[in-house]
């Protein structure tokens, strides 16, 4: 491989991880200079560009280059290109920036995500209905719509579904979809290249704004300010703004109060952790879409092991599919366990069934022996189910294994207990609190 190819190949790797605009803006104007002894020199248009790459993308660049050179470590220097700082060249860069940040609205939406492929369950029903209402009646619906929920629970899917739905019905609506990080990048570039005016113009001329992962604005004062003005303009013109966040407005301490209160003007719709049936339906759908044939017991295992993040569930499915098609091995629970070792937290492994039983017995003031006994007295059933449920949640034990620890109960009894508690927890907030407190105590032991 010629040295110059290191950077070209590096760039194509990096490109895969970045939004196209960002790539065009920061990586396109770079060039290979030299490579020697684990140290690579990259020429950049100016000092500022180099600083930016170093602060924001050093890790990404390094990973890509290590991947290509197979070196153990690599050092990257960004060398400002003197020639390019001439006026003529600077103009070229400026032009590129404007092109890169001008309308790309439709191309930016992720075309993978539609309402049709979004599985609705109790955990996301409300957010789904709100999103659909806005998509069908933009401007006449809640404004802003604030979708909030944990990582990997479908916020990006829903917000894109709104955009895609609208564009399908009205192809010439001007929509911008971007992440708060991209918005921030644009603000920085606009300041840097003196393009604040066209930046503002651009955002004032659109019909609808979709901003994903707004929590990224925390602590970024200038971007917040720009977003605040943009928001006000659109809001006053009755143009919909849709926002997602993995934090509730009140939980974002580094967001200015005036912006936070704007978020609360419209509708806040949250997405909760999906229940068993919803996780199962999503997994089945994804398996079908990816054409991966999963046996029922493997599905059960995955859905029972990965509860709080659909992206992780999907990742596990893809890895299993890839592994089995590469090795020709059948997909089994054993294989799934093996492959998922990394995903199942180490911390959780150290909690034992014994510790759980003690904590539960203690809390409900019953004897340890009673917890494991066969007697089905009413005051014993709930604690026993809670303990089984916690074993399932906090350890890697399988249903039959848990059954053994409870005086040799059948695995279907354990499964039933877990489902039961999952359901009760939703209805009974006191029980939910108890379980949370026990979990916390056990994790911190
Ligand atoms: P977030 O933005 O909340 O972190 P994403 O929207 O990126 O999460 O969702 C992660 C993955 O899970 C995506 O591939 C998405 O399609 C999928 N997903 C999440 N919820 C659902 C759902 N209810 N139905 C179908 N797929 C879902
Ligand atoms: Mg997201």
Number of strands: 8
Multimeric organization: single chain
Distance from first to last alpha carbon:
53 Å
Q: What composes the largest sheet?
A: 5 strands, parallel
What does this structure look like?
The chain is an alpha/beta fold and 445 residues long. The chain folds into four domains: 3-80, DnaA, N-terminal domain (GMP Synthetase, Chain A, domain 3, 2-Layer Sandwich); 115-271, 3-Layer(aba) Sandwich (Rossmann fold); 276-344, Helicase, Ruva Protein, domain 3 (Orthogonal Bundle); 353-444, DnaA protein, C-terminal DNA-binding domain (Chromosomal Replication Initiator Protein Dnaa, Chain: A). It is 60% helix and 10% strand. It is built from 22 helices and eight strands. Helix 3 links the parallel strand 2 and strand 3. It is globular, with a radius of gyration of 26 Å. Residues 92-107 have low confidence and may be disordered. The chain binds adenosine-5'-diphosphate and magnesium ion (MG).
Task: Give a quick rundown of the structure.
This protein has 445 residues and is an alpha/beta fold. The protein contains 22 helices and eight strands. The protein is globular.
Question: Layout of helices and strands, plus pairs?
Answer:
Elements: H1 3-17, H2 20-27, E1 31-36, E2 39-44, H3 47-69, E3 75-80, H4 87-101, H5 105-108, H6 125-136, E4 145-149, H7 155-169, E5 175-179, H8 180-192, H9 196-204, E6 208-212, H10 221-236, E7 241-245, H11 257-263, E8 267-271, H12 276-290, H13 296-305, H14 310-327, H15 333-340, H16 346-349, H17 353-364, H18 368-372, H19 378-394, H20 399-405, H21 411-427, H22 429-443
Parallel strand pairs: 2-3, 4-7, 4-8, 5-6, 6-7
Antiparallel strand pairs: 1-2
Helix pairs in contact: 1-3, 2-4, 6-7, 8-9, 8-10, 12-13, 12-14, 17-19, 19-21, 20-21, 21-22
Bound molecules: adenosine-5'-diphosphate (ADP) and magnesium ion.
């Amino acid at each position: 491989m010629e040295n110059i190819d290191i950077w070209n190949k590096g760039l194509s790797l990096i490109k895969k991880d970045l939004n196209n605009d960002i790539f065009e803006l920061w990586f396109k104007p770079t060039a290979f200079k030299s490579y020697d002894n684990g140290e690579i020199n990259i020429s950049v248009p100016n000092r500022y560009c180099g600083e930016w790459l170093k602060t924001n993308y050093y890790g990404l660049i390094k990973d890509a280059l290590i991947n290509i050179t197979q070196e153990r470590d690599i050092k990257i220097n960004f060398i400002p290109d003197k020639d390019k700082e001439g006026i003529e060249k600077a103009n070229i860069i400026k032009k590129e920036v404007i092109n890169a940040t001008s309308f790309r609205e439709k191309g930016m939406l992720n075309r993978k995500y539609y309402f049709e492929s979004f599985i609705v369950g109790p955990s996301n029903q409300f957010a789904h209905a709100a999103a659909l209402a806005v998509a069908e009646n933009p401007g006449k619906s809640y404004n802003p719509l604030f979708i909030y929920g944990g990582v990997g629970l479908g916020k990006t899917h829903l917000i894109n579904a709104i955009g895609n739905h609208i564009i399908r019905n009205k192809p010439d609506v001007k929509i911008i979809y971007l992440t708060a990080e991209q918005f921030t990048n644009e603000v920085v570039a606009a300041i840097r290249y003196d393009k604040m005016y066209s930046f503002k113009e651009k955002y004032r001329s659109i019909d609808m704004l979709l901003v994903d992962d707004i929590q990224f604005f925390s602590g970024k004062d200038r971007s917040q300010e720009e977003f605040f003005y943009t928001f006000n303009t659109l809001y006053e013109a009755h143009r919909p703004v849709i926002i997602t966040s993995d934090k509730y407005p009140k939980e974002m301490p580094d967001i200015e109060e005036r912006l936070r209160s704007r978020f609360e003007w419209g509708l806040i719709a949250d997405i909760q952790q999906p229940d068993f049936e919803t996780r199962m339906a999503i997994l089945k759908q994804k398996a079908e879409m990816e054409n991966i044939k999963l046996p029922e017991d493997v599905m059960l295992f995955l859905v029972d092991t990965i509860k709080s993040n659909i992206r992780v569930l999907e990742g596990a499915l893809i890895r299993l599919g890839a592994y089995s098609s590469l090795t020709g091995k059948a997909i089994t629970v054993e294989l799934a366990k093996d492959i998922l070792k990394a995903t199942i937290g180490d911390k959780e492994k150290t909690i034992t069934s014994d510790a759980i039983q003690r904590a539960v017995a203690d809390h409900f003031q019953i004897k340890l022996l009673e917890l494991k006994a066969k007697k089905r007295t009413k005051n014993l059933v709930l604690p026993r189910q809670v303990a089984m449920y916690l074993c399932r949640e906090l350890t890697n034990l399988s249903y039959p294994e848990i059954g053994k620890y409870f005086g040799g109960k059948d695995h279907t009894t354990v499964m039933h207990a877990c489902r039961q508690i999952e359901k009760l927890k939703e209805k009974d907030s006191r029980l939910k609190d108890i379980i949370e407190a026990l979990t916390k105590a056990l994790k911190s032991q």
